[in-house]
């Protein structure tokens, strides 16, 4: 992995431990620990400096029995040499009452003039959580000393907050909430997933030279979507683009009962830069879509199958007879042009069958499903897969997508996207500003537009005699979700908090992605 990758691709704590093995066997453990401790001390000093002088400040560390505690002890020793009052608080003791901790680390701290105490002193400005790192197993019992921290002390976690599973982000027991975490070797997936992400605070990744030893298999890596990755997945249209090269999105959404979904999904596609959006639905939704978006095409059946690059099916479709007919129409259109992509959301997730998934997979159609947590659990009941009931959401997603051949984007505060080959992405950055009815409909249209642009690119490549390879559906969907999350945050910052204005904020984000030097998001109403 490159230094850039280290912050953009998370791997499990277990994978980092495996990567360390050859280095430890070669006797490089102490060197790695020094590098980790030095970086931890640097970040501690930077945090102290935000509040005042480093020299003279008090830093305490909660020190556990393993190497995580060793890192903390060496970091304290470095800080002591910079004039910090360094205090080590052991949290495990042997039967004779002696602290159970890293002997060389303690020796280094003593040599530097640090001391040990039974509790964190009230004057401590910063507390390092160095109890447990990647060696954490079972349940974490918060040490008594961690329960009585000075109210305004900052908490800096060493590698991972103690009690957080570095693989999954699960918190087993009580864990401190860190202001920042300094993590070594690679970004750990437990710091970007689940509750672990909420406990970690700002995460700093420190390169200690593990890059060449880290695993490359998609099955243990987790991409963190960001602007650069989103731009690579959804690049600006070429100068010679025309509406069809930018991608045609067919939107089969909305019903008499839920008419607004057709408008929101169409808006999501239009504002994500689709060349053309064609809504298929009853008269009511056709009228609404046309009134809101005069540039859209509308009809009862949708575009000619040969014309559509992506089908967005399901938002507000209801599940009555008419919905089944419309869903069957989408599948029939895809049979005619299997290289077009399918985005299935909401009602379509309740209609989709295992047999349909098998046919789509056999035909090579790129498929993305976008359930929220409730829809995901219903989908797994109706269309089960071995291992898909795992408690670890990423493991469950990997098991299900591998068996059924569709990419799943699991919506939530941290959206996870997993492809059948195990490629996985996490989308962070959005906030509760998106927790409103209809934002998912906008997302489905946005993903449709990104998929359509990719399908159009791929078709052109094929016509030119090139092999464009398989569609990278997980990163395409994650890119759209990232744009959508950023748009939610952007519009909240600008004082707008309704779903109706989200598509406009999305458009401003896409413009910034495509033309970063020109776009002025503040100017967009
Ligand atoms: N290796 C390297 O090259 C580098 C590693 N680095 C650092 O090492 C860290 C990993 O260190 P590690 O392997 O010593 O494990 P660590 O997280 O300190 O904990 C293990 C100890 O905790 C205990 N324990 C476990 N669960 C428990 C529980 N629930 N409740 C209570 N106790 C529990 C368990 O004791 P046991 O219960 O087995 O007696 C065991 O002794 C890593 O996160 C990074 O900070 C860096 O220096 C860079 C180079
Ligand atoms: N607390 C939250 N933080 C960040 N994003 C959220 C949060 N709650 C919901 N979202 C996002 O809002 C959208 C909601 O989609 P969905 O549940 O399908 O709503 P609807 O069906 O009403 O459109 C998803 O993109 C989801 O990731």
From TrEMBL:
Cofactor field: Mg(2+); K(+)
Residues of the YjeF N-terminal domain: 16-216
Binding site for AMP: 411-415, 440
Keyword Protein transport: no
Binding sites annotated in the UniProt record for (6S)-NADPHX: 67-71, 133-139, 159, 261, 316, 372, 441
Ligand binding (K(+)): 68, 129, 162
Sections of the chain in a coiled coil: none
InterPro entries: Carbohydrate_kinase_pred_CS, CARKD, Nnr, Ribokinase-like, YjeF_N_dom, YjeF_N_dom_sf
Name of one Pfam family that matches: Carb_kinase
GO biological process terms, semicolon-separated: metabolite repair; nicotinamide nucleotide metabolic process
EC number: 4.2.1.136, 5.1.99.6
Domain YjeF C-terminal positions: 226-517
Entries under PROSITE patterns matching the protein: YJEF_C_2, YJEF_C_3, YJEF_N
Top-rank taxon, per record: Bacteria
Gene Ontology MF annotations: ADP-dependent NAD(P)H-hydrate dehydratase activity; ATP binding; kinase activity; metal ion binding; NAD(P)HX epimerase activity
Note describing how the cofactor binds: Binds 1 potassium ion per subunit.
Role description: Bifunctional enzyme that catalyzes the epimerization of the S- and R-forms of NAD(P)HX and the dehydration of the S-form of NAD(P)HX at the expense of ADP, which is converted to AMP. This allows the repair of both epimers of NAD(P)HX, a damaged form of NAD(P)H that is a result of enzymatic or heat-dependent hydration. Catalyzes the dehydration of the S-form of NAD(P)HX at the expense of ADP, which is converted to AMP. Together with NAD(P)HX epimerase, which catalyzes the epimerization of the S- and R-forms, the enzyme allows the repair of both epimers of NAD(P)HX, a damaged form of NAD(P)H that is a result of enzymatic or heat-dependent hydration.
Family: In the N-terminal section; belongs to the NnrE/AIBP family. Belongs to the NnrD/CARKD family.
Protein name: Bifunctional NAD(P)H-hydrate repair enzyme
Organism: Micrococcus luteus (strain ATCC 4698 / DSM 20030 / JCM 1464 / CCM 169 / CCUG 5858 / IAM 1056 / NBRC 3333 / NCIMB 9278 / NCTC 2665 / VKM Ac-2230) (Micrococcus lysodeikticus)
């Amino acid at each position: 992995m490159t230094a850039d990758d280290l912050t953009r691709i998370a791997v499990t704590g277990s994978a980092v431990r495996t990567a360390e093995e050859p280095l430890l066997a070669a006797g490089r453990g102490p060197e790695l620990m020094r590098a980790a401790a030095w970086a931890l001390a640097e970040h501690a000093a930077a945090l102290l400096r935000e509040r005042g002088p480093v020299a003279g400040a008090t830093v305490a560390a909660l020190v556990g029995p393993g190497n995580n505690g060793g890192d903390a002890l060496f970091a304290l020793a470095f800080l002591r040499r910079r004039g910090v009052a360094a205090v080590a608080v052991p949290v495990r003791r042997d039967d004779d009452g002696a602290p159970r901790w890293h002997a060389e680390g303690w020796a280094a701290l003593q040599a530097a003039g640090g001391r040990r105490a039974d509790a964190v002193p009230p004057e401590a400005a910063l507390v390092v959580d160095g109890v447990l790192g990647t060696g954490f197993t079972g349940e974490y019992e918060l040490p008594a000393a961690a329960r009585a921290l000075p109210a305004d002390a900052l908490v800096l976690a060493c590698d991972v907050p103690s009690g957080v599973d570095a693989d999954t982000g699960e918190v087993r027991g009580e864990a401190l909430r860190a202001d920042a975490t300094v993590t070594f070797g690679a970004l750990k997936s437990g710091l970007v997933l689940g509750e672990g992400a909420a406990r970690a605070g700002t995460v700093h990744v420190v390169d200690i030279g593990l890059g060449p030893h880290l695993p490359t298999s998609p099955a243990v890596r987790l991409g963190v979507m960001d602007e650069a990755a989103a731009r690579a997945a959804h690049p600006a249209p070429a100068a010679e683009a025309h509406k069809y090269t930018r991608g045609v999105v067919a939107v089969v959404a909305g019903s008499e009962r839920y008419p607004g979904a057709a408008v929101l999904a169409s808006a999501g596609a239009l504002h994500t830069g689709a060349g053309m959006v064609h809504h298929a639905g009853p008269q009511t939704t056709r009228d609404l879509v046309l009134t809101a978006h005069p540039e859209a095409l509308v009809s009862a059946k949708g575009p000619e199958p040969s014309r559509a690059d992506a089908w967005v099916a399901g938002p507000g479709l209801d599940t009555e007879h008419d919905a089944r007919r419309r869903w069957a129409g989408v599948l029939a259109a895809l049979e005619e042009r299997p290289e077009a992509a399918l985005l299935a959301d909401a009602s379509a997730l309740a209609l989709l069958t295992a047999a349909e998934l098998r046919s789509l997979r056999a035909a090579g159609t790129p498929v993305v499903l976008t359930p929220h947590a409730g829809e995901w659990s219903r989908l797994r009941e109706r269309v089960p897969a071995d291992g898909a009931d795992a408690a670890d959401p990423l493991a469950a997603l990997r098991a299900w997508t591998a068996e059924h051949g569709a990419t799943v984007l699991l919506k939530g505060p941290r959206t996870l996207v997993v492809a059948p080959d195990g490629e996985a992405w996490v989308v962070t950055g959005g906030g509760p500003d998106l927790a409103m009815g209809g934002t998912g409909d906008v997302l489905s249209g946005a993903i449709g537009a990104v998929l359509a642009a990719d399908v159009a690119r791929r078709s052109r490549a094929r016509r030119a005699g090139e092999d464009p390879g398989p569609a990278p559906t997980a990163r395409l969907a994650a890119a759209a979700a990232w744009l959508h999350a950023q748009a939610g945050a952007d519009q909240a910052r600008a004082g707008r908090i309704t779903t109706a204005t989200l598509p406009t904020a999305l458009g401003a984000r896409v413009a910034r992605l495509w033309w970063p030097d020109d776009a002025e998001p503040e100017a967009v109403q």
